[in-house]
Design brief:
The chain has 257 residues and is an alpha/beta fold. The protein has a single domain, classed as Nucleoside phosphorylase domain (Rossmann fold), CATH 3.40.50. Helix content is 28%, strand content 22%. It contains 5 helices and 10 strands. It has helices at 70-79, 139-151, 173-182, 194-200, 225-256; strands at 8-12, 23-28, 41-46, 49-55, 84-93, 103-104, 108-111, 161-164, 186-188, 205-214. Strands 1, 2, 3, 4, 5, 6, 7, 8, 9 and 10 form a 10-stranded mixed β-sheet that branches. Strand 7 (108-111), helix 2 and strand 8 (161-164) form a beta-alpha-beta unit. The mean pLDDT is 95. Bound molecules: hypoxanthine. Hypoxanthine is lined by residues 90-92, 165, 170-171, 187-189, 212-213, 215.
Length: 257
């Protein structure tokens, strides 16, 4: 019999400040050894499944990507019992297939960020460990997202390389050309160090990315915020549908095992 309570957590990014359909039972203000998380951890039920929810940029979207306390967010979720982390990221599209509105479940990441607190193993606790990061995302949880999209009748791109940039500014066209040469398919500002910290805490982590704009230089002219808003309004319901199917699947799979 499985005695571990399965509790998937959603880490929501830009465009997703609350989860439609989430019946909130508890609002948890969690303190961690690494400081305060971005906001409360909401504990509730989605399609009858117990889930946790946190807004990565805070409930009013006031925390810039380079200022997010990623260590506190992941530690807080672990402290309140999260067993699986499902992240949502808004991204720019680099590869030819990554049109605006596409959804991608990345399988690799390249880190271009700098100056962020990116590890729990900084030696301050008398211990340094080097985690394996060959496959940054949890493959079983990636497959859950892919199956969830299929169940929701949504076409997605089932692999790709996420390039994590520092922000908060968008990139120059030359930076995107370099990232494309490096093999990046999408670009966002929050993929790292989040996924690495999840691995350090031994929490399975997968991410669903929504392309909200062509990356710099991939369309004529500058990137327009109004267009980004429009894509978010149109596609967030689909994102939520996939995420809630994914939470249900995680719970079903645990019950069946
Ligand atoms: N670059 C980086 N992060 C992003 C972008 C982008 O073009 N779009 C949404 N998040």
């Amino acid at each position: 019999m499985n005695r571990v309570t399965i509790k998937p957590a959603i880490i929501a990014g830009s465009g997703l400040l609350s989860m439609p359909g989430l019946v909130i039972d508890d609002t948890l203000l969690v303190d961690t050894r690494w400081g305060q998380p971005s906001g409360p951890v909401y504990c509730g039920r989605l399609r009858g499944v117990e889930v946790l929810f946190i807004a990565r940029h805070g409930d009013t979207h006031a925390i810039a990507p380079h200022k997010v306390n990623y260590r506190a967010n992941i530690a807080a979720l672990k402290q309140v019992g999260a067993t699986h982390l499902l992240a949502f990221n808004a991204v720019g599209g680099i590869c030819a297939d990554c049109d605006v509105g596409s959804l991608i479940v990345a399988d690799q990441i390249i880190d271009y960020t700098w100056g962020r607190e990116q590890t729990y193993y900084d030696g301050e606790e008398g211990r340094v460990e080097h985690i394996d990061f060959t496959s940054p995302y949890d493959e079983a949880l990636r497959q859950v997202l892919i199956t969830a999209a299929d169940s929701a009748g949504v076409t997605i791109i089932s692999q790709g390389v996420y390039g994590a940039t520092q922000g908060p500014r968008l990139e120059s066209a030359a930076e995107i050309t370099r990232m494309e040469r490096d093999g990046c398919d999408i670009v966002g500002m929050t993929g790292m160090p989040e996924v690495a910290l999840a691995r350090e805490k031994m929490l399975p982590y997968a991410s669903l990315s929504l392309v909200v704009n062509p990356a710099a230089g991939k369309a004529s002219g500058p990137i327009g915020m109004a267009e980004i808003e429009q894509v978010i309004v149109e596609r967030i319901p689909v994102v939520c549908d996939i995420l809630s199917h994914a939470c249900a699947l995680v719970s079903e799979q645990a019950r069946a095992s």
